[in-house]
Design goal:
The structure holds 2 protein chains of 2 kinds. Chain A has no helices and 11 strands. By secondary structure, chain A is mainly β. In chain B, the strands form 2 sheets. In chain B, strands 2, 4, 5, 6, 9, 10 and 11 form a 7-stranded mixed beta sheet that branches. A 4-stranded antiparallel beta sheet of chain B has the order 1-3-8-7, with no helix packed on it.
Chain lengths: ~120, ~120
């Protein structure tokens, strides 16, 4: 069964600290892995997309890693800011013929950054 | 939220009434998607459309209907047959074909409450 599991469910950190969010998946056939940021009551916004051959990708203070062998990914946030408070969603894409990518969404990690 | 708009942001309906959620995009994307988001769960695909006048059921299509008469528009109707319609509904769009790492861009969402 295609599944994406994220940990922790929620996390509280102090402003300026670093944190790492985890994502484990059992999705086949794997196409790519994405991390999204979702502010409360808004739509998700893409942070990174990684294909099978990529093992790290950065977007400003966000760095995602991918280990396709162990089917694990992490999202590292450096020097957190209050605006980083949001849910972070790991999404794994399974490729099917006809050009359609099915996205399997994790439940997200809710991050709260406190001053 | 890019070039995708959803309206209204909040919607209240009585049980037994059908309701239609609007989704419009000006990104010239061929593909459009409807997702449902419930607390503590990942997004689940309701319907998707890869081209005008064609759409396919997602994982939880029962109690929902869609149409795709124009490239820019993909309205979702929540019918009275949907047993648990209260949720946050997200529309997304993307290009199709060739590059399977293409991004899905999400709208701001509509929160539907049925009492």
């Amino acid at each position: 069964k295609n599944q994406v599991e994220q940990s922790p469910q929620s996390l509280i950190i102090l402003e300026g600290k670093n944190c790492t969010l985890q994502c484990n998946y059992t999705v086949s056939p794997f196409s790519n892995l994405r991390w999204y940021k979702q502010d409360t009551g808004r739509g998700p916004v893409s942070l990174t997309i990684m294909t099978f051959s990529e093992n790290t990708k950065s977007n400003g203070r966000y760095t995602a890693t991918l280990d396709a062998d162990t089917k694990q990914s992490s999202l590292h946030i450096t020097a957190s800011q209050l605006s980083d408070s949001a849910s972070y969603i790991c999404v794994v894409s399974a490729y099917f013929s006809g050009g359609y990518n099915k996205l399997i969404f994790g439940a997200g990690t809710r991050l709260a950054v406190h001053p | 939220d890019g070039g995708i708009t959803q309206s209204p942001k909040y919607l209240f309906r009585k049980e037994g009434q059908n309701v239609t959620l609007s989704c419009e995009q000006n990104l010239n994307h061929d593909a459009m998607y409807w997702y449902r988001q419930d607390p503590g769960q990942g997004l689940r695909l309701i319907y998707y459309s890869q081209i005008v006048n064609d759409f396919q059921k997602g994982d939880i299509a029962e109690g929902y209907s869609v149409s795709r008469e124009k490239k820019e528009s993909f309205p979702l109707t929540v019918t009275s047959a949907q047993k648990n319609p209260t949720a946050f509904y997200l529309c997304a769009s993307s290009i199709t074909g060739g590059d399977h790492t293409y991004e899905q861009y999400f709208g701001p969402g509509t929160r539907l409450t049925v009492t």
